[in-house]
Amino acid sequence: MRPDFKKGDYTFIFQSRGTSFIFEYLVFKYYLGPEWETLNIFNRDDKRVFFTNKTVADLQAEGMRRTPEEIQVVVMKLRAGIAAAKKEISRLQAKQTIADSDFLQYFEHLKFLTHYRYFEFSYWDKVFEISKTDAVAAQKVALVQENKNLVREELDIIFFGEGSYLETLIRKASHQFGVPVAQLNWYTTNELLGLFEGIVVSVEILKSREKCIYHTLNGNLDFFTGEDAQAVFKEFEDTAVSLVEINGKTAHSTGITIKAKVRILSRDYGDNAATKANIAAMQQGEVLVAESTDPELIPAFRKASAVLTDVGGLLSHAAITSREMNLPCIVGTGNASKVLKTGDLVEVDAQKGIVRILERV
What we know:
This protein is an alpha+beta fold. Helix content is 45%, strand content 19%. It is built from 16 helices and 13 strands. It has helices spanning 21-30, 53-65, 68-93, 100-109, 113-116, 125-130, 135-159, 165-177, 181-184, 189-194, 203-208, 226-235, 272-281, 298-303, 317-325, 336-339, and strands at residues 10-17, 38-43, 46-52, 211-217, 220-224, 245-247, 249-252, 258-264, 287-290, 306-309, 329-331, 345-349, 354-359. The strands form 2 sheets. The protein has an 8-stranded mixed sheet. The chain has a 5-stranded antiparallel sheet with strand order 1-3-2-4-5. The longest helix has 26 residues, at 68-93.
């Protein structure tokens, strides 16, 4: 039976487009903390992630307890894990056929993602808030800011795009077993291993996952499809589309209110060409608005007069990068990329965390 999910009990944490189901499944298995309670809403190529409010509070308290020494150790372990995985990619690309042990080796490498949890922005908002007067908090903030974006960019070779570790495995399995890549991208880890025993998942089962939700609690995963999933979609749908003012957290303020047109950049991890084309179309001085940001959007930051995101905390990619580039930035608006459209004229008061809509296209 589906639990009774209520939107008010959850905090909107992340949204992405173009990531595969198998990638999201790997995130569940190797990244999400077993003590985290999360709700993941998957609408084919669009995924939204929610943490329970209790989980967010627990993470913030944990961030306060962590030490700078722990963060330094984690950075070393992450770099070692990424380096080991890169070596494995070269070996794998040279193989004509693969075995189930190649997938098992990949899953073993992914265990280093447990260390990347240290960079989940939900840990750090309270730490950041006291960092101006607390030397230890300031040291923790500096370590996260210094390393998060660098590590995140290196992770791409493990997951995303042609030549990545995951893409290489899926492509070789497709050729070997005659199952299209588009179908394998909807498999779970156990189902990928099942290919070596002659087990192919039916198209009907894979199709049912295109609109589903999954709930994680205590390291367990529950899938919901059909009517149960539809009920959750309805509960968590975005409805605030007629606002004249948007509110969020101040990640950085220059003390200057920005008045400029909006540029919506919806990051699609499955279509880098489209992302680059959208960035190229962006005009100098526009306000960059996105669900969230990552290193691929750095060229857009260079054009932007301000940055707004739907999700994120004070040590998210958008917040860190905006501070480095001295751009006004408001994160955690919840819906800026849905409420606003490219060409809208807005006033961004980052000091107050307020965006006022002046003219709509």
